[in-house]
Amino acid sequence: LVFTEEDKYALYSSLLFKYFLAEGIVCGHDLFVASAKEHPDNILKELPAPLLDDTSGKELGDEAAALKSEDFQDSMKIAWRYQNLPKMETSPASYTKFGHYYDVSKKMPPELIQSIKFHSFYLHEELSSQPKMKTCNMNDAYARLLQSLQRIISQGGFDGSDPQRKQKNVLRIGIQGLGSPLWGDDICCSDAPEDVHSLTKFLYVLRGLLRKSLSACIVTVPAHLIQNKAIMERVTNLSDLVVGLESFIGSERETNPLYKDYHGLVHVHQIPRLNSLICDVSDTKDLAFRLKRKLFTIE
Amino acid sequence: QGKFTLLRDTRTDGSFLVHHFLSFYLRAGCKVCFVALLQSFSHYSIVAQKLGVNLTAAKERGQLVFLEGLKSCLDLVFGEEEEQPGQPSPLQFLSESSCDLRALFDFVRASLSAPDSGAWKGPVLLVDDLSVLLSLGATPVAVLDFIHYCRVCLCSQL
Which one of A128, A187, B53, B122 has the largest count of C-beta atoms within 10 Å of its C-beta? Predict the structure, then answer.
């Protein structure tokens, strides 16, 4: 997923990033979180708590089984089928098959977090190791991240390299703020950056890793800072699902009466077309989001 | 025959045309070289099955030469063995500072001029898609050169 962070504060995109990770914990998946901005351990502490009451929360076992039985030969780059679906109905009951619901005002209990295997990549702690792979003129930070990812995928048996392993699990990967100067990339700094290709090369190798393993990945990118349109088009082409969030904070839309109940817009730029001839484009194209005290909704 | 077709989609998804042409030419009995950069083999294979064509069988009988870009890229980036001197990776340009697509063109030419090619009707080259080459650092000039060389190679064979 290439996920554009909205205008200034990256508030809402980091919320959706956390939802993705939280869903992974509730489903019992392994997590891999990479960031150059904040330590992944801190990100984990901020995850929303799941609502595990009778109607909306199925047993964790059921959910995990349902996901594993799908054909993950071609695992999607992102898995986007979860709690933000209710566009028309608000009652959770009818959507129990599609994931879980969360209470944004509460934090995920530590016992749940500890129940899964968690791999973290915090750039500033990784600077000592030498990447053994061919970096292909890619930015150093990206190369290290790929190296780390490839190691986890192969050691964890997510790519089927360990036939002894009976219990197959999914690896959920979250990468925050890719393309920002914190990763050593300059595509956000000018419209004629020196290193135009590092991000796209990274995404291509990442795509290859995801395709050959049982994993799904969410990437957030401060796209509003990338002035080079060609780069954004290539990034979109290399992703399966592309969603942009535009918040109303500080924009003229804030006072527009049409948007008074909402905090921003959701732009779906691309949907996945894996293993099928064409994708199913929904009729509803105008989506807006709002963050209430407990719930983040897209309508 | 002797045709160069460019598929271009703007704000929409034209990938169904790739699947169409792939199954169309395979069914017509042509020898096909498919440089598949964007998706994995199993994606194309599953869709081809829905269109009534079996890509694995086509590969086995030598009718289809399939370059799975994503896999080749991983082999190149994470592979530890040195490639044999006569067999550079078709995606060689990734690891070198020179961004020309010579190795890729050599791959295409070798695939379509293999000894058994006489058994099939006309050679067909499919590339999905060119923008991936640009994303991987090939210069626009290199991509144009690649297209040009491919056109000359394929059209002169007919």
Answer: A187
B131–A73 CB contact, under 8 Å: no
**Helical axes A198-211 vs A140-155, angle rounded to 10°:** 10
Amino acid symbol at A83? Q
User: What domains does chain B contain, in order, with CATH numbers?
Assistant: 14-156 (3.40.50.300)
Which of B70, B77, B95 comes nearest A207 by C-beta? B70
**Helix (H), strand (E) at residue A119:** strand A118-122
Of B78, B131, B137, nearest to A237 by CB-CB distance is B131
pTM of the model: 0.84
- Quick one: tokens of A123? 């750039």
| B83 touches A at CB < 8 Å | no
Instruction: Flag if B77 and A136 touch (Cβ within 8 Å).
Output: yes
Domain A2-49+97-298 fold is Rossmann fold (3.40.50)
Indicate yes or no: CB of B74 within 8 angstroms of CB of A237.
no
Inter-chain CB proximity A74 and B40 less than 8 Å:
yes
Q: Measured at the alpha carbon of residue B145, what is the angle toward residues B143 and B146, in degrees to the nearest 5?
A: 65
Burial class of residue A34, CB neighbours in 10 A (0-12, 13-18, 19+): buried
Cis geometry, peptide bond prior to residue B129 (ω within 30 degrees of 0): yes
Is the CB of B19 inside 8 Å of chain A's CB atoms? yes
In A, minimum Cα distance to B136 occurs at A201
* CA nearest to A202 within chain B: B136
Q: Are the beta carbons of A146 and B131 separated by less than 8 Å?
A: no
d(CA A30, CA A165) in angstroms, rounded, equals 15
